[in-house]
Design goal:
homodimer; 2 domains
């Protein structure tokens, strides 16, 4: 299971009643945050979630509205007595930018580890999930992110017996351990059926709708995508500012065969995004103009009954 | 007249429903801001005031909760098409700290001018008012600020006649101009009565209640002072953390003979400051535990009727 909260939906500047766009996910006691603008820590508190368990922070790019809340968040994580290291992932220069911002957060009770992105696509493994970063197309270097949770096959007692796996090691193998008994090594694949469909969340903001995004979002359970402008006729403005319209985001979602699209990163001039939700729905039915704090639990598919 | 808004009342970290402590004043089309934590620009927008006209920003000290919103505010001021320079006043190191934070706000359409404080007391003149900075006692270098508006004497036609000032230059002199006519120089003091009482606002947070604060706040029309802890018995905690209790702030207000005290900079653990307002009122009757956005227009005293 992966719990996803779109903490904020604004672009450019934080507004009363609209936090800057950021997304937080939780699974197995570990949280991941994508972007951290001014006020993101307040959005986390308002949601009732904790900043203490944020193990990974992915930054899309170095525009202020995506990173200005980072020193404050790190300070609050320190105040919450976090001691485990935090991994920060972001475009080239991440250590320089974050160290500069940390002039007001110099002392933290945990280590900050940097993972600088330099390739067009990179994959980073964490316990329980994988993060895939992919270059998008903005006016400065910008990345989108996919969080992927794989799912092991179902326990298959017939297969276990066929492979002569002693019953007493079954539960340890199911937990993912490798077990040696009487000189024989037993592994999880000896008792499990074929790998099942996992979960996939793809997130991107601050980009034109390039083909690679659809490829990276292919088949996602949830695609969170910027829609800076909603009203029909705003394509030229979106192109000028290297952003997307609702229609462009919805076309990407359709092309990528995702299950659901959440629109976010609204221009401050877009007071009622819902008024233009129909524009997206015409191109991709399962589109939604989100409000701050919108949350969903992504769940694994139910196994078919025999 | 001086319009004063206490934009936020929180200390340490921004909370849902409680912005970080900051104060904004407006007079004659020019605004002054004291401190700029994460979210201060949102508080300004929520109040309906504009960041465009902020000519002076005073920073008390370099703890994150007092300065983390600065890059975002500067970006928003840039987006509001401000081109006039902004003066930033703060403790030693101001240029280094702000330039570091500006890694995410490198390009602004206005100049940022720094005024670094190095003395225990400094006075800086701006058109229409004076800023007095004074050292307070925190665990890092920290300053309080007084904004003072002086008020010229009342126009005195008898005095003007006595000084043989031609009637045709009266209005220009009243506007503060110096006028030369037929080789004679006329100045404002030749037509005005004695200087009248002006306006004085004194602001300090993040300090122990040292004597110098009372001296600097002496006779202020409004004294905005931190009260990190409200409940009786919190003196030791306040001393440890180099902050003040409501009682300590109220005692300072009484000692300084101010007209009114606003308490602010509440600990996140202090959910209902109003519940302890009585503690301050016992020592200084005109005390108030403020909420975010509390505003007052300080007005000049009415002239006595003849």
């Amino acid at each position: 299971m992966l719990e996803v909260c779109l903490l904020g939906t604004g672009g450019m500047m934080p507004l009363p009643g609209r936090f800057l766009t950021a997304c937080m996910t939780r699974c197995n006691g570990s949280s991941l945050l994508i972007d951290c603008g001014e006020g993101t820590q307040v959005a986390i508190r308002k949601k009732g979630w904790s900043c203490h368990d944020i193990d990974v922070i992915c930054i899309t790019h170095w525009h202020g509205d995506h990173v200005s809340g980072l020193p404050g968040l790190l300070l609050s994580m320190g105040n919450s007595e976090r001691t485990r290291p935090v991994t920060l992932i972001g475009p080239k220069g991440i250590a320089d930018v974050v160290n500069a911002l940390r002039i007001i957060a110099p002392e933290l009770p945990f280590a900050v580890e940097y993972r600088e992105l330099t390739e067009n696509k990179e994959q980073i493994e964490f316990p329980g999930y994988t993060v895939e970063a992919f270059r998008v197309s903005h006016n400065i270097v910008c990345y989108g992110y996919t969080q992927r949770i794989s799912r092991a096959g179902k326990f298959d007692p017939e297969k276990a017996k066929k492979n002569a796996v002693p019953m007493k090691v079954w539960s340890r193998l199911q937990k993912g351990q490798t077990v040696e008994e009487d000189g024989i090594v037993y592994t999880q694949d000896m008792i499990l059926g074929p790998q099942r469909k996992g979960l996939k969340l793809t997130y991107c903001t601050d980009t034109r709708p390039i083909r690679q995004i659809a490829a990276c979002a292919e088949g996602a359970d949830l695609f969170i995508c910027e829609g800076m402008y909603g009203e029909p006729g705003s394509e030229a403005k979106a192109k000028d500012h290297k952003h997307m319209t609702f229609a462009e985001a919805a076309a990407l979602a359709a092309h990528a065969n995702v299950a659901e699209l959440w629109l976010t990163h609204y221009s401050p001039s877009l007071a009622y995004p819902k008024a233009f939700e129909w524009v997206a729905k015409e191109l991709f039915a399962n589109s939604r103009t989100c409000r701050d704090g919108y949350t969903k639990m992504l769940e694994f598919e139910k196994d078919e009954e025999k």
